[in-house]
Amino acid sequence: MTKKIILFFLLLLILIFLSVFYLGKGTTPSQKVFPQDEAVQVYFNHPTARGSKYKEPYRHLTRSGDNLEQIYLEGIQSAQFSIDLAVQELRLPNIAKALVKKQQSGVTVRIILENIYNQTWGEKQNLDISQLSERDRSAYEDYKKFVDVNNNGNLSPKELQDRDALVILKNANVPLIDDTEDRTRGTGLMHHKFMIIDHKTVITGSANLTQSGIHGDFTNLNTRGNTNNVLRIKSPEFAQLFTEEFEIMWGDGVGQNPDSRFGIHKPERPAKTVIINHIPITVKFSPSSSITPWEMTSNGLIDQQLNKAKNFIDLALFVFSEQKLADSLRLESQKNVKIRTLIDPEFAFRFYSEGLDMLGVALPDNCRYEIDNHPWETPLITVGIPDLPKGDKLHHKFGIIDQKIVITGSHNWSNAANFNNDETLLIIDSPLIAKHYLSEFEQLYKTAHLGLPNYLQKKITEQSQKCNLIASPKSLKGTEKININTASLEQLESLPGVGKKLAQAIIIERQKQPFTSPEDLQRVSGIGAKKLEKLTDKINF
Predict the structure, then answer these.
(1) Does residue 13 have a pLDDT over 50?
(2) Which residues, including other chains, have CB under 8 Å from residue 333's CB and lie 6 or more apart?
(3) 3-state SS of 213-260?
(4) Strands 193-197 and 176-178
């Protein structure tokens, strides 16, 4: 009897140990499964710790990850009064059909797109495809096969009406504008990715509503979509902030008065914080004016979060080209904060990437180094690129501070996002939400390629020798031309003979009409022939 009791307790202990092990005790964050907050939910389209799976609606593959398109569809289907959607690109026919169906039921639907994506693929057939960029040409060919259901090489009217999202929307007269509605050519990208349902729920994140952005390239079954995150946030107060941003862009709608405002023509919108189910979420919309103090901009808000770090900073970024943020990270690293950074392979090792700074190197461009570059004297070995299926991109724009604060949204860590584009930046102060993002980061980091690739070191050496430059300069100032149409107030003041007042005058004049040549600068009071001569070699457009 005693032996049976001992054996019973031994088996019980083994079962308890196994239960604890599989529930995640002693495992890495990427192995744990975390609950969703009732009001603030987060989703990722690549494999997650939740083990979620779904069947793609277009390629009909069963794959791991969250169905981000379904999150938007559920939001559309739940709408009773209104749907406001602002997204850079919309190419998913099921989304378009759901929006049309809601409009036909009496729900008010309004859509804002980036102008370069406000063209049906049928219209693109009339273009010289050879003149498109390699990326756009590839996207066109992929989408053409997506629309060509019978695979005969031609896009019939019926196929376009069923598979081209913009044809579906325009045939149904769904109200739609783009960032040329303010009667400009678009001063920056309309880069938002958000939807407001009934003024009480917001769906937002990093994902565009495209096949490659969510599910994967239609013709490449190995792809799983660009890595993206989407948040569903239920709060009327939070939704009101997005509605205000939407209304600034919408104005009075389609083809009426030119009162829509995009990019640099928007008023300054300070950051605002809303408490949702005990979770503080700060919202900042870009762009800011170039005369706005940098600390009050979206990048300045990111900087404030980085400066709060005590122990850890983890970053997953599509683009990282903001020098001031790299400089702040360098200071945090010197304070023994552990920093891990993943950047999309396409952008990680370009001459302007701050990933190079973190790796302690600089890459010249046309025998010039980027202005104010600061390669780190103590390089990190925890910087690199994720190992993704060929064709997929690291499209996240998130950071995690001390496993507690999440920085996310559509906002890339760049000067263009800060001062030109329509962008959303969110700061979420929640250990639970941070666990979800940290789990995603760990999934990407565990197979990442870290450090300086051999081919890049060779390229740096070759370029340095060719240009007679120092291979790893400690600090570089004033070696790169300044873009007169995008430069900050501080950058303009660094030009010879340009003080604060003249810099402000340049900004005001370029907002009226961008400069296209050095001679255009003479439109600015205070810039004559002599001053223009000093500036010409130090600026570009």
Answers:
(1) yes
(2) 339, 376, 378, 380
(3) HHCCCCCCCCCCCCECEEEEEECHHHHHHHHHHHHHHHCCCCCCCCCC
(4) unpaired
Q: Which residue has the tokens 């890339």?
A: 412
Please tell me the distance from the alpha carbon of residue 317 to that of residue 474, in angstroms, as a whole number: 25
The confidence band for 24, taking pLDDT boundaries of 50, 70 and 90, is very low
pLDDT at 119: 87
Q: Which residue has the tokens 């943020």?
A: 325
Residue pLDDT, tens place only, 308-318: 999 999 999 99
* Measured distance CA(393)–CA(386) in Å, rounded: 9
**Other residues' Cβ atoms within 10 Å of the Cβ of residue 538:** 15
For 105, 233, 508, the CA distances from 202, given in Å and listed in that order, are: 21, 5, 34
Q: Are 254 and 177 in contact (CB under 8 A)?
A: yes
Pairing of strands 449-450, 383-385: antiparallel
Instruction: Look at residue 132 and give its three-state secondary structure.
Output: coil
| Mean pLDDT across the chain | 89
pTM over 0.90: no
281: left (phi > 0), else alpha (psi -120 to 50), else beta? beta
Q: What is the pLDDT of residues 46-94, one digit of tens each?
A: 988 788 999 999 999 999 999 999 999 999 999 999 999 999 999 999 9
Region of residue 38 (left: phi > 0; alpha: psi -120 to 50; beta: else): alpha
> How much helix, strand and coil, in percent to the nearest 5, is found in the chain?
40, 20, 40
The tokens for 108 are 């008010």
Instruction: Indicate whether 422 pLDDT > 80.
Output: yes
In 225-260, which positions are buried (b, 16+ CB within 10 angstroms) versus exposed (e)? bbbbbbbbbbbeebbbbbbebbebbbbeeeeeeeeb
* Amino acid at the residue 490: E
DSSP state of 368: B
For residue 37, is pLDDT > 80? yes
pLDDT of 27 reads: 37
Q: Is 199 helix (H, G, I), strand (E, B) or coil?
A: coil
Buried-exposed string 29-58: b where 16+ CB fall within 10 A, e elsewhere:
bbebebeebebbbbbbbbbbbbeeebebeb
For residues 273 and 433, the answer to whether their CB atoms sit within 8 Å is no
Asked if 395 contacts 382 with a C-beta cutoff of 8 angstroms, the reply is no
Is residue 357 within 8 A of residue 376, CB to CB? The reply is yes
**Residues 202/238, Cβ–Cβ less than 8 Å:** yes
User: Distance between CA atoms of 501 and 260, rounded to whole angstroms?
Assistant: 29
**What average pLDDT does this structure show over 273-281?**
98
**Per-residue pLDDT reduced to its tens digit, 211-263:** 999 999 999 999 999 999 999 999 999 999 999 999 999 999 998 888 999 99
pLDDT of residue 4: 60
